[in-house]
Amino acid sequence: MIWVTWRQHRLEGAWSLLLVAAIVLCLGIVIYEAGHPGCPAGARNADFCLPNNAGGLLAQQIMRFNLVQYGLVVLPALAGAFVGAPLVAREIENSTLRLAWTQGVTRTRWIIAKLSLLFILLMCAAALVGILEVILINSMGSQANHWNWFDQQAPLTVAATAFALALGVASGAVIGRSIPAMAATLIGVVATRFSLAVFARAHYMSPVLFTSHDPNSLNGTLGATPAAWWLDEPSFRDASGQTINQIDALSQIANLSPADAITYLRDHGISIVQYYQPADRFWTFQSIESGILLVLTAALLGFAVYWVTRRVT
Amino acid sequence: MISPVQATGLGKRYGRTWALQDYSIRVPAGRIAALVGPNGAGKTTFLHLAAGLLRPTVGEVRVFGRSPQEHPLLLLDRVGFVAQDTPMYGDFSVADMVRFGRELNSHWDQEAVETRLQRLNIPFDRKIGRLSGGQRSQVALTMALGKRPELLLLDEPVARLDPLARREFMQGLTEAVAENGTSVLLSSHLVADLERVCDYLVIINGGRVQVAGDIDELLAAHRLLVGPRTHEGDRPPGVEVVRAQHAERQSSLWVRGKVSTLPNGWREEPVPLEELVIAYLSVPAAGTLPKPQLEVA
Alpha-carbon distance A153 to A144, whole Å? Predict the structure, then answer.
């Protein structure tokens, strides 16, 4: 079965390898540029230490289009659509299942052998890309908030690739045609990851309430934990805990010195509050979201095996 | 002897349409049996059920006494199947296809496969997608024979071949089967090709089994009677009319049974297989099935 799987999917394998090699090259250049000692402090752009002069041309191009940040998020979805979805679907639309399933190998062994090889190879590729992403993120040092790169972290990249593959294989088996299955996979992966990021992630653990009487907190830079994930905008509350209008509050302290302003707010029971997730929860959150995706992966794989062995005809 | 393919009350429904209904047949062992019927008669569905690719809606199909759906491990190695239009991986070379068969089948006969392909002058390095229709069908048959199956199921194996390639294919099949004593069930709507190689006939029509029996016996039991124009319902005594055709001055009756005394002005002719099949297919209500047999365990 290993040879058969290899022979049938070596084209996808070659494309994946090429893609991974290109990513490794690009990220390698970016990481090299980021850590290059010749990079003057004044030439740093946004998140990265990048020289604006010659040498960092490719890296700059990549940065300019945010390819790194957004490109890396869509990689797992692409793996699911281009490798996972056609796995069973193409055999259904070409009727070759009638050949494959009347050889001396049961459907169960057939699908499990294919899935195993596919997953081992693509998990390795995802892990490699994930490790490079970690190096990239770390090379940005304190300039980058890790929470902004949550989706590109290694555990989530690997888990998302597994999920995308499983969704691809399952939808391919159910839909039975490659192109619609690929579309369904892309939409499914994007929708799932978007929903997790936007609707679920902030609620994995109860947020912490930051409270201060210092109006400087409003500019967002103040706080004990600079790499925290701020969930909302800072707001003013009165002594009873009611939210009060920011303009009203600011007008009360408009003519006071910073020290007096703090005293005034404290005396009047007015505080500036903002919800956040502390920096030390980062890896817990990575584990939770990766775990959710892996549970979905297991369910989809179980469903795919069931569907292939019992339902596809 | 246990039947290679036996169906009892077998039915398969897609949505509201029954692809086949109340199928009961027992294909004899060691024979080349032909499954004949018009398009949409349920031939492919029946073969897919026997190959374990489909699950019956009602009834059961048994291959060597076992359900192919419940016991794939026991049957997959013993049954060779060539699907309609011989699906294969177009980007595989012939050699890749042979390796595919070797990797996936435990009784694979590599030597016989190579010998057969060499004898057929099929280049091993040619991609499957670039083979001619005849070569492609031969590769598919060789793949199925390479499993050394006890039962071979072929779905319209010659439908897309020209007459010469058709004859070569059938000849190859006959030889291969004679060597190994394999039982064969093949479907076709080209009746002329069957007479030369098949010895058992199953006619299915409208999703039901219409005729099942030994071809020699069927041919011996049927006669075409040609005589003066008779009225509907009139028939010579002692026979059963399968199909009647009345021209202006002459009537043709395809009948079953022994004609003892031929009325004046009538002549009797043997019925070729093709006409026999057409006679039954044009009258779906007619039918002849073997008498129930006692199972010998």
Answer: 13
* Residue A98 to residue B53, Cβ atoms within 8 A: yes
Q: Is B46 exposed, middle or buried (0-12, 13-18, 19+ CB in 10 A)?
A: buried
The alpha carbon dihedral of B212, B214, B219, B220 has a sign of negative
Which residue in B76, B87, B106 is closest to A98 by CB distance?
A: B87
Residue A104 has its nearest CB partner, among B76, B89, B90, at B76
Place of tokens 């246990």: B2
Query: In the numeric block, which tokens belong to residue A290?
Result: 């990766």
Which pTM value belongs to this model? 0.85
Residue A38 has what pLDDT? Answer: 47
Site of tokens 């759906």: B69
In chain B, residues with a C-beta closer than 8 Å to the C-beta of A99 are: 83, 87-89, 143
Low-confidence ranges of chain B (pLDDT < 70): 232-238, 288-297
Residue A225's pLDDT is 47
**B253 beta partners:** B225, B244
Q: What is the pLDDT of residue A95?
A: 92
What is the DSSP secondary structure assignment for residue B81, as one 8-state letter?
E
What residue of B is the nearest CA neighbor of A90? Answer: B89
Vertex B230 angle, CA B226 and B236, to 5°: 65
CA–CA gap between residue A49 and residue A31 (Å, rounded): 10
**Structure token digits, residue A68:** 């790194």
Q: Which chain A residues touch B72 with a CB distance below 8 Å?
A: 106-107
* Whole-number pLDDT of residue A63: 59
DSSP for A94-163 reads TTTHHHHTTSSS-HHHHHHHHHHHHHHHHHHHHHHHHHHHHHHHHHTGGGS-GGGGGGGSHHHHHHHHHH
Rounded Cα gap, residues B102 and A104, in angstroms: 10
| Predicted pLDDT of residue B227 | 86
- The pLDDT value given to residue A45: 46
Could you give the angle at which helices A2-35 and B94-104 cross, rounded to 10 degrees? 110
Q: Is the pLDDT of residue A41 over 60?
A: no
The confidence score (pLDDT) of residue A194 equals: 93
CA–CA separation, A172 and A153 (whole Å): 28
CA dihedral B247, B250, B255, B258 (to 10 degrees): 180
Question: How does pLDDT run across A119-165, given as a tens digit for each residue?
Answer: 999 999 999 888 888 887 776 655 567 788 888 888 999 999 999 99
Q: Work out whether the CA dihedral A277, A283, A286, A292 comes out positive or negative.
A: negative
Cα atoms found within 13 Å of the Cα of residue A45, Cβ hemisphere only:
14
For residues A264 and A256, the answer to whether their CB atoms sit within 8 Å is: yes
Give the integer Cα–Cα distance in Å for A172 and A71.
24
- Within 10 angstroms of residue A53's Cβ, the number of other Cβ atoms is 12
Strand order, beta sheet including B32-36:
B79-82, B151-155, B183-188, B32-36, B200-205, B208-214
Phi and psi angles of residue B207, each rounded to the nearest 5 degrees, phi first: 80, 5
- Interchain pair B76, A102: CB under 8 A: yes
Q: Is residue A55 very low, low, confident or very high in pLDDT (cuts 50, 70, 90)?
A: very low
Give the closest of A96, A105, A106 to B87, CB-based: A96
Give the pLDDT confidence score for residue A224 in this predicted structure.
Answer: 46
**β A243-244/A235-237 pair status:** antiparallel
Contacts with A176 from chain B: Cβ below 8 Å: none
Contact B188, B196 (CB under 8 A): no
